[in-house]
Amino acid sequence: MTKKSDRQLGMGRAITRRDFVQGSSVALTAALATRLGAANPGTAGSVAGAQAPAYYPPTRTGMRGSHPGSYEVAHALARQGAQFDDAVDTGEHYDVVIVGAGISGLAAAHYYRQRFGDDAKILLLDNHDDFGGHAKRNEFHQGGGMVLSLGGTHNLEWWQFSDTVRDFMDSHGVDVEAMRGKMGFNYGTEAPNSPAMWFDESTYGVNRLLPNCHLDHRLTAETIDLIPISDAGRASLKSFYGRQENLFPELDESAVETLLAGISYPDFLRQYGQLTEDAVQLFHNMAHGAWGVETRALSAAEALWTGSPGVHLLGQPWPDEGLDYPVAMWPDGNASLVRLMVARLLPGVAPGVTPNNVALADFDYAQLDQPNQGVRLRLNATVVGVEQTDTGVTMGYVEGGSLKKLSARHGVLACYHSVIPHLCPSLPEAQKEALQYQVKIPLILTNVLIRNTKALDKLGIDAVNFPGRLHGRCFLFRGINTGGYRHTMGDTGPVSLVFWGSVSPPDDAIDLKSQLRGSRQKLLQLSFEDFEREVRTVLDGLLGPEGFDVNEDILAITVNRWPHGYSYEYMDLWDPDFAEGEAPHEIARRPFGAITIANSDAGASAYTHVAIDQAWRAVSELPDARAPET
Ligand SMILES: Cc1cc2nc3c(=O)[nH]c(=O)nc-3n(C[C@H](O)[C@H](O)[C@H](O)COP(=O)(O)OP(=O)(O)OC[C@H]3O[C@@H](n4cnc5c(N)ncnc54)[C@H](O)[C@@H]3O)c2cc1C
Predict the structure, then answer these.
(1) How far apart are CA 501 and CA 209, in angstroms?
(2) pLDDT for position 505
(3) pLDDT at residue 217, as a whole number
(4) Distance 328 CA to ligand 1 centre (A)
(5) Is residue 202, in this structure, part of any structural domain at all?
(6) Is 605 a pocket residue for ligand 1 (Cβ < 6 Å)?
(7) CA torsion angle for 493, 494, 496, 497 (degrees, to 10)?
(8) Ligand 1 atom, smallest distance to 416 CA
(9) What is the pLDDT of residue 626?
(10) How far apart, in whole angstroms, are the C-alpha atoms of residue 125 and residue 394?
(11) Per-residue DSSP letters for 230-248?
């Protein structure tokens, strides 16, 4: 086997990849660090605060997403039971303090002003160094002009919008049809030989790229002959793809549905598809991006419903088309939506921003948290305690290593649900238990800025699936010309190659939540260098033969790791059918005095429109009358 050394892979190259120069602003003071014990972030580098002139997190590369410095305080609270008392009272008092400046928190600020007036005093607190939560913007400035990429939340599934969300989009000037008209991007399925599959030497004994290799009806016997698995495995694939029958003629539709909902997709492939184990393994990470889980966590019904092969065994024709997913997108994903929201709430941050220039507009982060503003947004601030008082709420938070507190009439918790019981221990026990039902799904988006697309163009590919690698898939991210940004499908210059997926959980993690926790733990243990080595190894094997030089052609790498990614959604194999009003997310989001609960977790559905709907509900549940001033 030809394993390359780190040096040969270019690991020592001075690409833009490490962010410890700009670092994290959560530099814990000695006193607080002692109280936290082992929870010290270890990255207490610079103390660039939100007010520093050059503070502009979207250009940071290296480990992003849940970046070093963002989660240590919350982990100390939730995992180690760290106590946070003796907070310094800042004397600040607001109408509402919103925990979490993701899409739901920002939408809650919008709805709060709508309900309580434009003069309402609002503070948003977020533990990250940038606003937007999952909707994070990645900017590259190497090798020419600015190249934008996705740091998290990708797109708008507009056909699922409620009337509330449609109004919200209208009020922010978002026109999804116009956006669709400016997109050529279709998740890397536009090139003639895409998507392709790459089989790697360390898993399959040989590096082999199979262009036009789809695990759907287009998979031909000739392509199957080239898949490097056992002869029996290839024969089982040929037989599976060649069949057209109805396995259950005696069952009615609902009986078939029940059957499919009760069997995992890999078991369906084994039992009814008659696939060998090595053939079944080809499918194991194909849902890492869309679902964030292994296929073994999906029922056959869920997998088939989202286009995985098998309906040809149920008397139905193969679907004709490949991907038909008409989403609307900005070149930085839904980070542009977030920027529109911030610009509206805090006009001083980005004057003159419109949907037509939002992707290019300058944002002055120094204006986010100014005392003379009605709305303030404080970054690098982790909330550690929320308490009811006679007149509203008090909140404790850690910022820059100091423990501080402030008060408000109302509190909206738009953060991850699993942390809320730790923030607010006085919640009813049943509600705390329901909040902790929500175990988020880990995800990764590793953006690799490459010098040009020559090697991919020679191969005629713009998307590749990797059944044997850490990231399940990569795709070229270009062809989105919204928000004033232009990056055409034909541009062959610097571009972000997005490696997308999740981390396979340990084999001995059986139930879904053990799988999610196991996957999260593995993700948090991977260093930036592990990701860098991985993408360099893949690109060397995949594109090296076409002249791509991993030493010269990789300009920057940004890893967006999301240990707490998609909201948990109820799944066939793992969750009972809950009676209406009794589902954990419905119990979890019950109002608690002056405190209400938002976030997409509150809808048990990992979508931007759900985050907005839940913000609307949370604000409408706040007690009517403004409590008297303290
Ligand atoms: C990689 C990825 C891709 C996705 N793609 C899509 C997509 O294409 N389309 C789609 O509709 N959805 C997508 N989603 C789902 C996404 O979660 C939602 O669309 C939406 O962005 C969620 O917004 P939110 O405000 O509910 O949560 P979040 O974005 O998670 O925001 C919550 C914020 O609260 C902060 N917080 C947590 N605890 C504290 C604390 N104690 N103190 C202070 N702050 C705290 C968090 O750090 C975070 O910043 C994707 C998610 C991920 C991770």
Answers:
(1) 19
(2) 97
(3) 83
(4) 18
(5) no
(6) no
(7) 70
(8) 37
(9) 53
(10) 13
(11) -HHHHHHHHHHHH---BS-
Any atom of ligand 1 within 6 Å of the Cβ of 443: yes
Q: How many domains does the chain have?
A: 1
Beta strand 463-465 with 473-477 is: antiparallel
Residue that has been written with the tokens 């602003």 in this structure: 25
Structure tokens that stand for 75 in this block: 């982990």
User: Which residues span the domain enclosing 227?
Assistant: 215-280+302-312
Residue 220 corresponds to which amino acid? Answer: T
Residue 121 lies in a domain: no
Kindly give the parts of the chain with pLDDT less than 50: 18-53, 627-630
Give the single-character DSSP code of 401. Answer: T
Tokens 């707490």 -> residue: 564
Identify the residue whose C-alpha is closest to ligand 1 atom 53.
Answer: 565
In a domain, 574, yes or no: no
Distance CA(627)–CA(630), nearest Å, equals: 9
Q: Which of 415, 435, 445, 499 to mutate to test the pocket of ligand 1 (most atoms within 8 A of CB)?
A: 415
What pLDDT is stored for residue 3 in this prediction?
Answer: 79
Q: How far is the CA of 288 from the centre of ligand 1 (A)?
A: 17
Instruction: For ligand 1, say whether the CB of 607 is within 6 Å of any of its atoms.
Output: yes
Query: What pLDDT is recorded for position 22?
Result: 30
CB atoms within 10 A of CB 228: 18
- For residue 243, being part of any structural domain is answered with yes
Does the CB atom of residue 611 touch ligand 1 within 6 A? yes
Say if residue 54 is exposed, middle or buried (CB neighbours under 10 Å; 0-12, 13-18, 19+). Answer: exposed
State how far the Cα of 442 lies from the Cα of 440, in Å rounded to an integer: 7
Query: 152: Cβ below 6 Å to ligand 1?
Result: yes
Atom of ligand 1 nearest to the CA of 567: 17
Total-model pTM:
0.94
Q: Is 125 in the pocket of ligand 1 (CB under 6 A)?
A: yes
For ligand 1, whether the C-beta of 288 sits within 6 Å is no
Do the beta carbons of residue 115 and residue 128 sit within 8 Å?
Answer: no
